[in-house]
Task: structure prediction
Amino acid sequence: MTEDIKLSKLKIINNVDGDVLHALKKSSIDFKNFGEAYFSEVKYGSIKGWKRHRIMTLNLVVPVGEIKFVAYDDRNRESPFFKEFVLSRYNFFRLTVPPMIWLGFKGMCKNGSMLLNIADIEHDPSESDNLQLDEIYYKWTDK
Amino acid sequence: MTEDIKLSKLKIINNVDGDVLHALKKSSIDFKNFGEAYFSEVKYGSIKGWKRHRIMTLNLVVPVGEIKFVAYDDRNRESPFFKEFVLSRYNFFRLTVPPMIWLGFKGMCKNGSMLLNIADIEHDPSESDNLQLDEIYYKWTDK
Result:
């Protein structure tokens, strides 16, 4: 069975001194395993990509700014397709990306943006592949 | 043996499109278990506290702004003491707080601050105690 990309709505608990934003619980249905948590910032207009993990499942949350994610799914070589997701605290979802999907993302906020990835394995450069931005044709200029 | 509060230096990997900031790896010496990850924002000048977890160990990282943490350790009733930590991406450490320590924190950044807590258990209000700010005497006005 081919695992699909999944969006999960996350709670924000409002508080006069500062909100609390959920990210991931052990009991979440799409929690597999804890390997590593890290942040990745993306400047306004900058694009990071393309990267494909062969083993890692990503759990992505955007607590700061706004990030456009573009997934290129060519697991079925005869019918590859793109999926787009724009995440921010105003559209507060966790994006779960299974292995073997190409991912790129762009910073959409003038003040900068940041994602948290809670991955099921630790960083290991040998399990990921990289392509230059122009090696997968996608028109990034549109929002 | 009484577990102490611990600071662990974290790496920031500079990148022209946006930095990558480490938070926690499964292989980190102070990683126990993954229970839940959540963000807590704290407005400039706001103070959240006091709270004591009876079971949870906290792993706190400050990727946005600057937060002053004050720990009040009264586990030895005859010699209680305070410890203070000011964390930000310019003093980028993970703060590991074992159970039974009172914690309060204050937002030190005009643009707002945010912490990530990677806790070893899921949120459970029955395992934490709260005190009003004035129930533990601490002079928060100093930086």
About this structure: The CA atoms of residues 46 and 106 of chain B lie 6 Å apart. The mean pLDDT of chain B is 96. Chain B touches chain A through 36 residues (CB under 8 Å).
